Amino acid sequence: MTIQFYLEFVRDALQLARKVAREVEEGGEGGKPLGKGSYGDETFYVDRAVEDAVLQLAAKRLPRFSTVSEERGIAIDPAARLTMLLDPVDGSTNAKKGLPAFSTSLALAEGPLFRDIFVAGVIDHATGRMVWGSRGRVYEDWYVAVPSEASDLKEAVIGFDSKAYKVPEEKLGALVRLFASTKYPRVLSTAALETAYVASGRLDAFVAPYAKLRSFDCLPALFLVKGAGGRVKVLSGELDELPLDGSKEVDYVAAGSEGLLRAILEILP
User: Fold this and answer.
1) What are the distances in angstroms from CA 79 to CA 63, 64, 66, 82, 109?
2) Where is pLDDT greater, at 60 or 98?
3) Per the confidence metrics, is the pTM higher than 0.85?
4) Which CATH superfamily is domain 3-144 in?
């Protein structure tokens, strides 16, 4: 199988995810609760519908694969070389409330670690815009993704992870100072999409320093930032060594430029 084959799968899977989510929303059942997912978060009907559709497409199109997905958890095929990392709906609360900021992200890897990812993509359900690509070859839709060169913290458009309740009290002051240091903070509550938009320059940076995100929340998008030439700093561990299985929570800063990354890290403890 060629890289093009896998890129086409990523494209088709993300477009299918958006189609299914729209159908569920039109049917009025998207916010129906279905209990807890494998990682303990509430699962809604839209999460399960998108997950089922993507996994069914993967079963038809891909060779044997293992899966790490937010809702179903880990499904290992001992004979598989591929692992698919999937977040069916990142921003489920937005989706169930009819708010437009939510996304689907996925990645394919040939091993258990971040460094083994070779294709990935994230789709914006509101616009249909897609950031996707392979190592060193990342696009927003059909245009080459180019990270921002902004380095002035005050003028930068910076996304912030929304889970402020997870921030240790002794570190909350630094995060507030960073938030107040830019004129253009953004909180969309979909880390996958916000990180992917750093790859294509729509956001100058995205900050999740204490959020402790899971692998499927962020690793596909971090692969895109790195592939597009952006900067990533994982605050606990090394990016390439992060496991896909969700066993290690991730905190990080992604930025288009080295100068902006340094300016952000000077404020965060």
Assistant:
1) 10, 7, 9, 9, 14
2) 60
3) yes
4) Fructose-1,6-Bisphosphatase, subunit A, domain 1 (3.30.540.10)
